[in-house]
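User: Predict the full complex structure for these chains.
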Amino acid sequence: GENVEQHPSTLSVQEGDSAVIKCTYSDSASNYFPWYKQELGKRPQLIIDIRSNVGEKKDQRIAVTLNKTAKHFSLHITETQPEDSAVYFCAASRSGNNDMRFGAGTRLTVKP
Amino acid sequence: GAGVSQTPSNKVTEKGKYVELRCDPISGHTALYWYRQSLGQGPEFLIYFQGTGAADDSGLPNDRFFAVRPEGSVSTLKIQRTERGDSAVYLCASSLGQLNTEAFFGQGTRLTVV
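Assistant: Here is the predicted structure of the two-chain assembly.
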């Protein structure tokens, strides 16, 4: 089955700096890659997703890049703010299966 | 309802007891997922339903775990002979069931086995 690895496990940045979180996946048939943000004690919520037919997607301060050849995808957050502090999870799934497998998460801390 | 609802929000049970965790998905969502999340970890896939049938139950850790979705809406995760290692937050999510669509999570049920 699919195996998703995520790095780093923790990341601390100064407010205004950029943060990058990277994930790799094992199933070359995976074609949907969502990113979820989970604040303490709350449910995971989708912040951005990318499908395999594009290499990059951007939504304001958040962007995701996908390299299908290398089987890795990354989350980029620019101009970080304290409210970006949370745990971020990447995931991968493939058509016909639709179950998502998650990475272990990255705890992002944005210091004011 | 407006979102995915899970009950109870917290459950404390004694080792060896049986528990049921309930998930009410968003109306119209045909896909339903159960995940288990331990402290500091990502959600661990347990089982996925498409309609009434379990399309993939490969994540269930052993035969003490079972899930049903008899009418294609509400789902119940059942754990027999609970063990302390079962303690975790059990998350349910639902989606439209079309290929590659967003999954919406419930708040989870925090299960503590003492």
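Residues 93 and 105 of chain B are 4 Å apart (CA to CA).
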